[in-house]
Design goal:
Layout lengths: L2 H24 L4 H12 L10 E3 L2 E3 L2 H15 L10 H19 L9 H9 L14 H5 L3 H16 L21
Antiparallel strand pairs: 1-2
Helix pairs in contact: 1-2
């Protein structure tokens, strides 16, 4: 886009805004309400954006910096804690944990298999939303699966449960940060 067209667009927006303000001022019934209603329609965002992140004494303002800082913070939050072997209490907990793991590994209890009837029943209880999750499959599409696909799902689920392996998509969690207002 050329500079002249950008200037023309800016002039047009400015004149439209001035026309709107003059219309608001000439109308006598609750002009403030009309003004703020119009503004709320224009500037309504889906979520509260944040452009800066305070970390200790520094302020991070780039999107990459904010992303990296949040990644580092949550990685540290969910990291396996280090065990201090010199502490008797922690050493005792570690020994009991290993003992329980050894007991459980000796057990040969098989995992209860799932059936196509159970999967069909659970699919019917899904909410009929059309938006997809992290796996890019919507509930709407899942509800439209033919019976042969449900049989295939049952076989896959039973195999994965018997082998104690799970698809990577099942291990992903979406973290949504909630911004505090006026902080």
């Amino acid at each position: 886009m050329t500079r002249e067209s950008k200037v023309d667009i800016a002039k047009h927006k400015n004149t439209q805004w001035q026309n709107f303000l003059s219309n608001i001022q000439t109308s006598y019934d609750k002009s403030d309400k009309a003004f703020w209603t119009h503004l709320s329609r224009i500037y309504k965002s889906r979520s509260l954006p944040f452009y800066k992140l305070s970390e200790g004494t520094k302020i991070i303002s780039t999107p990459e910096g904010i992303t990296n800082e949040l990644f580092q913070y949550y990685s540290e939050q969910f990291k396996v804690p280090a065990v201090d072997c010199s502490n008797e209490h922690e050493d005792q907990i570690d020994r009991k944990y290993k003992e329980l793991v050894n007991r459980l590994s000796v057990l040969n209890d098989s995992v209860e298999k799932t059936s196509t009837a159970e999967i069909t029943r659970l699919i019917k209880t899904l909410k009929p939303k059309k938006s997809a999750g992290l796996d890019s499959v919507s509930n709407f599409i899942i509800k439209k699966l033919p019976p042969s696909y449900i049989e295939c799902l049952a076989k896959c689920f039973n195999t994965w449960l018997n082998e104690c392996r799970y698809p990577d998509d099942w291990k992903i969690a979406k973290i949504i940060t909630l911004n505090k207002l006026k902080s």
